[in-house]
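During the second year of the project, the team shifted from modelling isolated chains to modelling whole assemblies. The rationale, set out in the original proposal, was that interfaces cannot be judged from single-chain predictions alone. As a representative example for this report, we include one of the complexes processed in the last quarter. Its constituent sequences, exactly as entered into the pipeline, are reproduced here:
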Amino acid sequence: MVGAMVFAIGNTLRGDDGAAHRLADLLSAGPGVDVRRVQQLTPELAEAMAHATTVVFADADPGAETVRWERLGATAGRSSISHSMAPAELLALARRLYDFRGTAYVCHIPARDFTPGSALTPVAEAGARGGAGFVAAYLRK
Amino acid sequence: MPQRILIQPVTRIEGHATISIWVNDGGEVESAQFHVTEFRGFEKICEGRPLHEMPGLMSRVCGICPVSHVLASSKAGDALLGVEAPPAAVKQRRLANYAQILQSHALSFFHLSSPDLLLGMDAEAGKRNLFGLIEQDAAFARRGIRLRQFGQRVIELVGGRRIHPGWSVPGGVQTAVTAATRDEIAAWVPESLASIEAALHRMKSITGSFREEIEHIGNFPSLFLGTVNHDGALEYYDGVIRITDSEGNTVAEGLDPLRYDTYLGEASEEWSFMKFPFYKPLGYPGGLYRVGPLARLNVATSTGTPRADRELREFKHRATGAVCQSFYYHLARLIEMLHAVERIEELIGDPELLSEDVRTKAMPNRREGIGSCEAPRGTLFHHYFVDTDGLVRKANLLIATSQNNLAMNQAVEQTAKHFVLPRQLREGMLNRVEAAIRCYDPCLSCSTHALGKMPLMVEVRNRAGELLDRVARS
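Output from the structure prediction step:
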C-alpha cells in the first residue's frame, strides 16, 4: 500500500521542462511516498496510482507566476488526439479502470524557457525549491 | 474548381498530419492526399557528433519506438568500429526489440484502433477513444494497458529507462542482465500470452462486421518488403530482405540490408514533409511497396514460434496470394505480439543472456556504417559516414513509416472514393479515411528528417494579413 505518489513530469533536456524533476531531487519525502520521474503520462501509470491515497502531479507551467497548487477533477476525452495523457485524464482512467478513490493535485511550477539544455532558469529553480517544500509539507500533514 | 475537404488533425496517430480530399465539380471525390506537417531533422542534428553518442541521440527520435533507433544506430556503430557485439549483447538487443514490438503494437491496437473496431466506425466521435472503450469493455482495455506495461517494463529493466533507453552502444551494450530481471520478466509471460490470444479471438470474431471496410480501406496490389532469416522465417534484428508481390511471388530474395540504397530510392513531393521511398527496379511511383506487420507476415514463410505459427497459417488462408487488405494490419499486429512474447520467453530461458561479456571496445576503423532492424512499423535503416576522429559527417535515416507513405496515400484515396459522399457528408465517412491511416500506425515524429529536401513556402504578411512576400522551394 502506497500512501502518496508524486509524478514529476518533464524532459530534463528541454530547459525548464525539467523543473519537476528538480523538485523530485529536492523533495525530502518520508516513507510511504513513491516518487516517479516521467517524461510524459501514459495509461499504464493509472494502475500504479490505484492504491495511493494522494497523488501529486508536478509539472512545469509557463503560465504560472508562482508555485500553484490545484485540486484535480477527472476529465476524459482528449486522448483521441495523442498517446500521452493530461493529469486529469490519467486520474479519470485510474478511477474508471482501477477504482482509484484518492485525491489528486497538480503542483504548477513556474517555467520560462523550454529551449534544449539541462539548465533551469532562476525562476524555475526557485519554483522547484518552493514546490518541493510545499509538497513535502502537504504530504507530512 | 475542385473543392477541398480537410481532415485536420488526423487523430489517434503519432505525430501531426492532415488529409485533403479533393472533390470535383460533379460532387465526387477525385483524389486524396496524406500530408505530414511536422519536421524533426535528426539527419542534420547528428552531424558533428561522435559516433559513440549516436545511439543515445537517436533514441530521442521517438518516444514510442526508441529501441529500434537505438539498435539500428548501434549496429551502424558496430560496423564503423569493425566489431561484432558479444552474443549476450545481441540477445539483450533482441529482447528489448521484441518488448518494443509488443508495447508499440499494444498501443496501436488497444488504444488507437480498438475504439473504431469495438465501438464502430460510426460511433459518436467523442466516445471513440480509450474512455469509450472502457465504457464498452473495461477488462479488454485493462488487458491492453497491461500488455503495454509489460513491454515498457522489459525495456526499462534491460535498457535502463522506459522511454529513450541509451544502454545499447557501438560494440554491444553497457550492462549485463541480472537473474532478478530475468525472473521478473518471466512472471509476466503467462498473463501476456493469454491476453493476446483473447484479443486475437476477439479480433477474428468482429471481422465479419467490417466486410466493406476490409474490401475498400486500402485494399490494393503492392509489393511487400521485410526481413527474414536464412530459412525464410520472421526476423527482426538480423537477416536478409525479401520482397514479394501481391500474388505471393518472390520478387527479390536475399537482398543485403547494407546495400539498401541500390534497390530502394527516395522521392519527394511538394505537399508533404515525408519522403516517398520506392523499389528502384519499378521506378517512382510504380515501385510502391509496403512494410510493417502485414508485409512481414506476407514475406515470411513461418514465424519460428508455435503459437504464432498457428496464427500465421490461418492468416495466410485469408488470401490466395498475399493478404493485401490494409485492415489486416491490425490482425498481423496481434500475431506479431504473440510471436514477440514467445521470443521473450525463449530469450530469458537462455543462460547466455546473463553473461557479463557484453561489449567489444574499439576505435573507429571504418568511415561508413549501416545498421538495420525491423521496427514496429517496418524495416529501419541508419546509414552514417564518419571522419577519422569518428565524428559523424553525414547521416541518412530510412524510416519505416516513410516507406509506407505511397501506400498510405493510395489507401486514403481509395477509402475516400468509396466511402465519402461530399454532398451527404457524415463524420463516420471521414473517420474511415483516418482509419485507413491508422492501419499503418504511422509514427510521424520518426520519419521527417531530410533537411533541404522537403518543400517549403515562407509567406511574409503584415498585421492586416496582406501578403508582402513569398519564397518557395519545391
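Chain B is about 40% helix and 20% strand. Chain B has one domain: 4-446.
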